Amino acid sequence: AREAAIEALYDNGLTPFETHEARSQERDRPSRAGTAHGLSQFFVAEHTNLNARALSRFTVELSSLIGSGISLDEAFRVMAASDRGSVGRTASALLKDVLAGAQLSQAMRTRAKTFSEEYCAIVAAGEAAGALAPALEQIAGLLGRRLELRSKISAALVYPALREEGYLDLA
Fold first, then answer.
1. Which of 125, 117, 113, 109 is nearest to 25 (CA)?
2. How many other CB atoms are there within 10 angstroms of residue 134's CB atom?
3. Residue 30 pLDDT grade (very low, low, confident, very high; cuts 50, 70, 90)
4. Do residues 116 and 44 lie in contact, with contact meaning Cβ atoms separated by under 8 Å?
5. Which of 60, 93, 98, 100 would staple 22 via disulfide (CB 3.0–4.6 Å)?
6. What is the DSSP letter of 12?
7. Which secondary structure element, helix H or strand E, spans residue 156, and what is its range?
């Protein structure tokens, strides 16, 4: 079975760099019991491996690569090679799962600390519709607006604090 899978990958123009037997997705899925899913947690799950900026960058890069016609596995290879940090490690881990036969949304769901259920659901809808790049673009836009709003709120909170401490004297 392993040799047949490798041969099928080569037949489809893909080059596997590592092969192993896939484990049951249901058994490996982390429990989501007891997690809060308020608006503040909409796209970034609790205790993320990628912070909000890195997740946004990951999503924008993946969306751009997929949208330009690059295959998913090649997009992950490019991302892993160009970033040695958390984005590259995440791309490499997802590549391994995808090459093992998992759909992207399934691979992301096994990393619940990085990808929220809502993020994975939008990716799954994009996969089902054959429109992964537009789904990723939508997520990237939402994440970008969220980061912008967070920045504006932080700036709005800093000004009164500086004024109160006397750093800003408006005489």
1. 109
2. 14
3. very low
4. yes
5. 100
6. T
7. helix 132-164
Both tokens assigned to 101: 């036969």
Terminal CA-to-CA distance of the chain, rounded, Å? 79
Angle between helices 132-164 and 52-67 (to 10 degrees): 150
Tokens 């590549």 sit on residue: 95
Helix (H) or strand (E) holding 109: helix 104-109
Q: Assess contact for 28 and 96: CB atoms under 8 A.
A: no
Q: Which residue has the tokens 């429109």?
A: 131
From residue 4, alpha-carbon distances to 109, 125, 147, 161 in Å are 27, 29, 45, 64
pLDDT digits (tens, 9 = 90+) for 127-141: 999 999 999 999 999
Res 142 pLDDT > 50: yes
- The per-residue pLDDT for range 33-61, each reduced to its tens digit, is 333 333 334 444 333 378 889 999 999 99
Q: Could you tell me which residues come within 8 angstroms of residue 137 by beta carbon, excluding any fewer than 6 positions away?
A: 63, 67
Residue 79 and residue 91 in contact, taking contact as beta carbons nearer than 8 Å: yes
Q: How far is CA 66 from CA 21, 39, 136, 145, in A?
A: 26, 28, 9, 21
